[in-house]
Structure formats: structure tokens, C-alpha cells
From TrEMBL:
It comes from the Bacteria. Residues 6-91 form the DUF3817 domain. This is DUF3817 domain-containing protein. InterPro entries: DUF3817_TM. Keywords: Cell membrane, Membrane, Transmembrane, Transmembrane helix. The keyword Transmembrane applies. PANTHER family: MEMBRANE PROTEIN, MEMBRANE PROTEIN-RELATED. It is a multi-pass membrane protein. The chain crosses the membrane at residues 6-31, 43-61, 67-91, 123-144. The keyword Transport does not apply.
Amino acid sequence: MTPRSLFRAAAVAELVTWTLLIAGMVLKYALDAGDWGVRIGGSIHGFVFLAYLVVTTVVAVNQRWSVGALVLGWASAVVPYATVPFEVAVARRGMLEGPWRRTADERSGVWDRLLFFVVRRPGVSAAIGVVAVALVFSALLVVGPPVPKG
């Protein structure tokens, strides 16, 4: 899996889960069908949102994006359906070209060493990533929704 294919998959997954969340909101608010659609769609979307942020960060470090490009990538997940247009834009600019970097060079820093660990051990890294996202997701569930019930 290349940086481009991983980022594309994450962008599409984020788009799909936005659809689930919006469908749940339509069920709740327009059809008065209860909040089960928002709970299910929102939970899936929340998990994928966090995973997208992680994938965007890993790809940005590998591709040596500017901080501005990274922040714009994160922000694209906040706006419904913006991750795929963002992915298309960075792909057109050549910002997703090339393989995973596996060795250090004169420009390598701390984040690159972490990237090399991730690239050399994709299974272990994926497992750590899923657990980390699940822990953050669980903590956010304990904190509660971003808006008070009412």
C-alpha cells in the first residue's frame, strides 16, 4: 500500500461516514425516528474521523508536507465531504507521489524516525494505531457529546 492509496482510502472512508452521520440526523430530526441513527452513524464517523487524522499525519510526515498542508488536511475532515476534494488536490500537486520513506537522510528528524518505525512494522503500527484511536474515542465518549442534550 502506497501513501497515495492509504490516504485515498482514508479520505473515502471519511466521506462515507459523513453520509452515515447525516442520514442519522435526517432520521432523527426530519423523520422523528429517534436518535439511534445518529448514535450509530456518529460513532462510526467519530472513529473514522480520528483514524483519518492519524493517516493524514503519517502521510504528511512521509511526503514532507508543510505544516499548513497538514492542518488543511485535518480541517478537510471537519467539513462534510471535503476529504476527497482535498485528496484530489494534493494528488494533482504531486504531494502523494512516491513510496514510503524507509531510511534517514540529512533532512530527517524525530518525526521521521517514528515514521520509519511505522513503515517497517505496518502490522504492529496498525494495531497500535487502532488501539490509540479506540482509547481516544472511548475517552471522548466518556466526556460526552460536543453539545448538551436539550
